[in-house]
Amino acid sequence: MFVNCHSYHSLRYGTISVEELVQQCVELGIEVAALTDINTITGIYEFHKLCLQHHIKPVVGVEIRKENLLYYICLAKSRTGISEINRLLTVHNCDGKELPKYHPNFTDVTVIYPLNDFPPKLNRNEYIGIRPEEINLLVNPSLAKYFHKMVILKPVTFTTKREYHLHRILRAIDRNTLVTKLEVNDYCKNNEKFVPPAELLKAFQQYPEITQNTKRILEECYFELDCSTPKNKKHFTDSKENDFKLLKVLAYKGLAIRYPDDDGTAQARAEKELGVIDQLNFSAYFLITWDIIQYSNRMGFMHVGRGSGANSIIAYCLGITDICPLELDLYFERFLNLNRKSPPDFDIDWSWHDRDTILQYIFDKYGKDHVAFCGTNVQFKYKSIFREVGKAFGLPKEELDILAPKPIEQHDNNSVTRMVYKYGKLLEKFPNQRSMHSCGILISEEPITNFTALEMPPKGFPIVQFDMHVSEEIGFEKFDILSQRGLGTINDAVKLIEEKRGIKVDIRDVRISKNEEKCNEYLSKGKTIGCFYIESPAMRGLLRRLKCDNYKVLVAASSIIRPGVAQSGMMKEYIFRHNNPDKFEYFHEVFKKELGETYGIMVYQEDVIKIALHFGGLTPADGDVLRRAMSGKGRSLSALQKVKDHFFESCTKIGHPEQLSKEVYRQIESFAGYSFCKAHSASYAVESYQSLYLKVYYPIEFMVSAINNGGGFYRPEVYVHEARMSGAVILNPCVNQSECKTTLYGKDVYLGLMHIEKLESKTAHLIPEERKTNGDYLSLENFVKRVPIGIETLHILIFIGAFRFTGKQKHELLIEARFLLAGKKTDYRHLTLFEEPQKNYKLPKVQRHPFEDAFDEIEILGFPVSFSPFDMLQTKYKGSVMAKELTKYHKKQVKMLAYLISRKQVPTKRGTMYFGTWIDAEGEYFDTAHFPDNLSRYPFQGGGCYLLLGTVEVDFHFPTITIMKMAKMPFIPDPRYSLYKEKAYDAYNNIREDVSMTWRKPYPQEHEIGLPRMKME
After folding, report:
1. Which residues form the Polymerase/histidinol phosphatase N-terminal domain (predicted)?
2. Confidence at residue 468, expressed as pLDDT on a 0 to 100 scale
3. Which of residues 633, 658, 686 is at a domain's end?
4. By C-alpha distance, which of 740, 737, 768 is closest to 754?
5. CATH number, residue 956
6. Residues 85 and 181 in one domain
7. Does a structural domain hold residue 411?
């Protein structure tokens, strides 16, 4: 009898999760119910699955609304019906077509109108919904002729009185108003909740025809979906057989290129994989991915195939990945096997510049009716909850700005904040809006609207109304099309090297990305700023601790830095065993046999599965649960818990000591914090090495490319510093030399106009475009005639020195600018054949302080260019020790002067601690640790230079200074404000720093790990 149930997927309206909705049906003995969320089918597949589990008949549909106005309720009679509903919503969402008020064009959908708004003539599939409170209205004679078209309408939106209030708060959030200012039509009636079926039928006992109509239309609805059948595009060619033939031809063609001297090993592996691919009907999936890669190659794009797909030799031979699975002993079953319950996917990265081109190709090639992005539900988060609920209760913005960043314990304990907190807690994990999955694309065999309505987010590519987990459950294998800036840096560097030096670097030749002596030297010293994945302070420290000097150790490092390995203490233990291979024993023979390459330490996801199977005796099915948990797809620790009992039962049967079994499982369980599969680590390592190769041999071109691709872990200033350390001459933006991006002429690096924060992007692009069209700018007057610009923006360009080619001082140019613009923005006009000669202004010479330009640069760019920060200090002291000497000072106290690069906040039981990264006066990097008790006395005071006093701790070749005292050192007073003392230190106080935060605990120390180094009996 319940034809109109809302879940919380009716965004900012419903208050019940799908699971709770079904549970209420179970408790009330409801045998059939319809989920009809507002303008979305997001919850229907979960609803369908849960209803069947509880022997409830699921009916699915949608409630069609335009803003607050209910048009009608749609119930799908079959899969055809839900397709019709999906297409109605899709043309509205994607094409802007108005939703029809009456008589939607359906053939297999039942339509129910509200009593207060229905058309005079009803089609055969159209009915009128009567709410229990509307029964008295049926005495109206004019309604008698519609009795045969009436059904019971008992909407469900909330469960309790508290949820009803929550519904009103959600409506206020949606309407961007106060709860007290909501109008009656803004929210639902206060009786929209489940009641026992008998009670509902009793209310309509005088109108049995209405009850019979309701039962009949629910009986007519039958939504069924075979989730075991793949929904992806079935064939790349015209049949499964021809797909496999083509795949085999391409695989053997690639095999001959990849393995010219094969002894039969590669061929045997390829034959084995082809058999599994054919058996599981994955030929089309491989071929579609291959086709995308072929297009990418034709366009000259660089890509990286990573994830478990790199375990496949067929993927390697097709050029999807560049990882040889034989070299790293990667087994195909990790990617695709007959026991695997969920479909795999390829993760493929492109440069952030090229990704949209790839996406457009996919949509054009396979058709917009068959391609869409996965959706994702963006949930209410703590800060947004507090802001939104607080605003609904009338808290002013100024107060919300102060309170939202603080934990609830620091809020005033008054009635309003208590109410905000009370209802805010209920909103946790509620979906707030639908968004686009970052990379997952679905390519369907049937029109995709057979399964979902589509929405069009601002990005411009349609999305389905469910997430990746639902898509996987109903039989879709997604294609992960990702983007990253690291590939953009590599790609741009290769192009720049060819443009500036005439050298073609085949960076995709993986032979240069494995074992190059000078690269290995940089790697072992952690000289990797700018290099993909290996530039963060933590990663550079790890490389130095390992003295990482080859590709295979880099592969391991890429995984042991991950939270699962590091937090369990196994990263620390790996470092010890790597440096002391003769000071430990394998505590069981299985660990020696299966994990000998990593010193008996579980480093990769495959290692965990190996130990679970070979030590714990688990089944391959349990191994797949472990794999899903470690890849973040199986609810992590809860998923691991499912196999825990099996593990200990099996270990007991095998005869393992209980203490040993507990220790092994402790290590397995720690991987719920995520680790990489070995193939994924290898893919990352290859890209890291490619970027390192370019940094080592073409450092200036590489750093310019890093700057232009938005850098990475650090702010642009750090990459500019790296370029300077590599021999580049850094120059401020110039209207006659600079492009929008940073440019290179020999060793001269002209910073791009894009680095001038207050310069509009449009103007930053127009300046070089106009110069290319009509030649260099001849003067300031010539410039303002050709580029439409306001006086404020022109001042910024003058202050940064963009007109230094004129040979005039800044004060002269500023006065000239006033004469030329007089506070107005000139309209652009083309150059004329005859230009009036420029007026010459004779102004007195002004003596400028040498540091004035540096202060201008700090204000405009965020960092000084003309001088280093150390040059601008009041003190000439540079510290007693330099960074390069720190390893000699283990356990000794040192005093250093340093410029702050970044700091990372880490919570501890005693409070917040920080890890800092600095450069010394010679430009070399070093790291510090700041504990809570020390920070309370010597806190960070923003960016700038500090005098540091601390004790050096050298941990396996890597020095860290534990800080005892520190003080921010003052710059000289800003000479530009010699008459305004109160502004003399503004620029210095605004110098930037990179501050990051992690919620993980500090990595455990050696004495806290307890990982046995001796054989356990």
Report:
1. 5-68
2. 87
3. 686
4. 740
5. 2.40.50.140
6. yes
7. no
Query: Which residue among 220, 255, 276 closes a domain?
Result: 220
Q: Are 680 and 307 in contact (CB under 8 A)?
A: yes
Report the half-sphere exposure of 802 (CA within 13 A, side-chain side).
30
C-alpha span between 182 and 164 (Å, rounded) = 14
Q: What is the pLDDT of residues 787-842, one digit of tens each?
A: 999 999 999 999 999 999 999 999 999 999 998 887 555 555 455 544 555 556 56
In a domain, 750, yes or no: no
Residue 598 domain flag: yes
- Which region among 82-91, 129-138, 674-683, 731-740 has the lowest average model confidence (pLDDT)? 674-683
Please indicate, yes or no, whether residues 153 and 245 belong to a single structural domain of this protein: no
Distance CA 479, CA 485 (A): 20
Q: Is residue 495 part of a domain?
A: no
CATH number reported for the structural domain that contains residue 25 in this entry: 3.20.20.140
Confidence of residue 361 (pLDDT cuts 50, 70, 90): very high
Quick one: 27 and 137 in the same domain? yes
CA 673/CA 629 separation, integer angstroms: 9
Q: Is 926:918 a contact under the CB 8 Å cutoff? A: yes
∠229-230-231 over CA atoms, to 5°? 110
Classify each residue of 232-255 as buried b or exposed e, where b means 16 or more C-beta atoms within 10 Å of its C-beta: bbebbeeeeeebbebbbebbeebb
Q: Is pLDDT at 57 greater than 90 in this prediction?
A: yes
The Cα 814–Cα 792 span in angstroms is 10
Judge if 164 and 271 occupy the same domain: no
Indicate if 557 and 674 belong to the same structural domain. Answer: yes
Q: What is the DSSP string of 514-571?
A: T--HHHHHHHHHT--TTSTTS-SHHHHHHHHHHT--SHHHHHHHHHHTSHHHHHTTHH
Residues 762 and 892 both lie in one domain: no
pTM exceeds 0.90, yes or no: no
Q: Both 7 and 147 in a single domain?
A: yes
pLDDT band at 672 (very low <50, low <70, confident <90, very high): low
Q: State how far the Cα of 646 lies from the Cα of 649, in Å rounded to an integer.
A: 5
Query: Could you tell me the residue range of the domain that residue 574 belongs to?
Result: 508-686
Residue type, 782: N
Look at residues 191, 190, 110 and name the one whose alpha carbon lies nearest to residue 151: 110
pLDDT(273) > 60: yes
Q: Is there a single domain that holds both residue 890 and residue 798?
A: no
- For 756-776, the pLDDT digits (tens) are 988 999 999 999 999 999 999
Determine the pLDDT at residue 636.
47
* Crossing angle of the two packed helices 570-579 and 537-546, in degrees rounded to 10: 30
Number of domains in the chain: 5
